[in-house]
Amino acid sequence: MDSTGECSPVILRVAVPVPLRRLFDYLPPKGLGAEDLQPGQRFQVPFGNRDLVAVLVEVVAESPLAELKPASERLDREPIFDARSRHFLQWAADYYQAPVGELYAAALPVALRKGKPADHWAEQWLELTTEGKGLPETALARAKKQQALLQLLLGSGPQSRTALNARGLNSSVCKALIERGLARWVSGPTAPPPLEAVEPRPAPELNEEQRLVIDSVPPVGFSASLLEGTTGSGKTEVYLRLMERALRDGNQALLLVPEIGLTPQTLRRIAARFPDFRIAALHSGLADGERARAWLSAASGVADIVIGTRSAIFTPLPRLGVILIDEEHDGSFKQQDGVRYSARDLSVVLAKNAGVPVLLGSATPSLESLHNALSGRYQHLRLRHRAGNARPPEISVVPILHQTLQEGFAPQVLRHIGETLNRGEQALVFINRRGYSPALTCDDCGWLADCPHCSAKLTLHRRQRHLRCHHCDYRMREVHSCPQCHSRNLNALGAGTERSEDFLAHTFNQYPVIRVDRDTTASKQALDRLLEPARNGEPCLLLGTQMLAKGHHLPKVTLVVIQDADGGLFSADFRAPERMGQLLEQVAGRAGRGDLRGHVLVQSRYPEHPLLQLLLSKGYGAFARQLMEERKIAQLPPLRAMALVRAECEEPRWAEEFLASARDYFQALAPPSPELQYLGPVPALLERKSGRFRFYLQITAEKRGLLQKLLAQFSQWAEGNRNRRLRWAVDMDAQELS
Ligand code: ADP
Ligand code: ZN
Ligand code: ZN
Question: Which residue's CA is minimally distant from atom 5 of ligand 1?
Fold first, then answer.
């Protein structure tokens, strides 16, 4: 009732997880009035013949629709999205031309997306009474456990039941304190799931370069910096110090890491540095309930440190004080399907909204970030030297064109591996393909094992006795005779990690050979266990895919072998050389991180290729700056803004026709000019995937704002002109042409 005595209508405007670019109106659930409604709460709403979980974005007094349905149920008493995160999600929806409801869904952990009430994870907290707060730390000396509990509560404030259990302070100790009138249970917000206990480890003394970097990042206010620092130069130490500064000011720190970077090793390092702060790790290895707890603890402001992969950028953080992006060049920060956002790019927007510093770190920065740094938009910070005693590795090319190779290895490379192991050191062999062999063919009739659903070959996985498509996961049993001519002369062409493992284990049979790829490391813990002998420092041979390139600090690795450096030199994707350079530099960076000097051997059929030469002689920094010149001439990103409009359909003609009419639509709005160019429709590099044909239209523009405006208009148009059997999407700042 308002003051005139009339009922003013209350309408919920909510974001619903459906592919439509708008909000939807509902009446409040029965029995709830204006005072029960706060933006950021979730509601269950009827939608078509389904019930969906929606987020309240706005409470309004009028709706353009006459007939509104009531929402079925309110799921949260308190909002779980604060105003800043709602504003941020709307911004991202507009920028990426994504339905805002799908963005809210992407922001939520699965359990909350499915409608589990947040209260389910509310916790009990033990806090001191006034009497308890008045005691000195030395009190209760005769009951050691009670004293430890008292000291904890005096030093670090109230503790959740979960945190107390994790420290071995069980309910009987708590009860004793409560019975003395010193403490009491109160109900409070969710606390993060406890991490494995680790020994606290003090920080090393910073070196001069590190100190300079840290002093250059202002503690408050928005700033964006790129930290370009050699592998092993102590970037992680810089992140830890910037985190510490934010934590001491009572703020939250957000650290984003690549998908395969959130290892138990990383978590241990952070937990060992910050034993007194609450850490929430958000990653796909968590069970749904644990992940919801971690998320809620961050969103309620309880967690001090939040570490996560890409989607953690959408976690509401009410006390956000600093954002750190590790390995900012990594492709996993860009989501490649559904809502195609870049967490790395969004981190700068979020930092600006929150008025906090953001630091993007990498030994091999993306050309996008490098461009921003060189043009002065970001502060450009450098770490040129390895921290501690480690020296940069020595790199040499091994030409393999006219050599007799053994299973893909040149004789001198095998000799080097043997010598390294015999000296009691470790060697690492990088192979870019998993499985046994990337192609199975018949020597008599030329049959080739193709995926029936994709334009791709099947990979032979001999351990699992099947052939598998790495794009759609189609599998068929391994065959021993040709399905076409029944000949038994089948030939596995080329080598993947399995085949190299067989060969290397046979050749160096006195030493353990450890294969690391997605097949041997189904869980995060598996990788940790696999690497155990390597961490212990025994001589061993590591072999694997790019999973080995990231983050691992293995001081006994003194030899790194890159079996084939040529993959990225001749691709149709203009970003392929950049990715190749990043990978080679990262893998090479695993060598000689301890006191022993490292060596890198790079096998290539084109040792004279100018890009490869530049990379190996001058390093990634010079290589990337050269690529930038080439992009400038070709008018490609990051010098231009680029978006793809993608379409896929079982019927290739429809996808192509849709994009042709899309192009007409765009050109009617804005004809091609030197500032605005259209290319396509063209087939994607992987033309057919999971039975659908894929095409795209590429648009490059000098002005991002113009591109944005065109895409927004197009999206509205396309929503109304859609063939139901066709999927389309806008891929703003697309990273892949595949
Ligand atoms: P990056 O993240 O750049 O690869 P890290 O931060 O992991 O580098 O540092 C590499 C190694 O050097 C680690 O073992 C780390 O403990 C050590 N380190 C980092 N900073 C220092 C320092 N100031 N003094 C001594 N050792 C350091
Ligand atoms: Zn055959
Ligand atoms: Zn397939």
Answer: 234
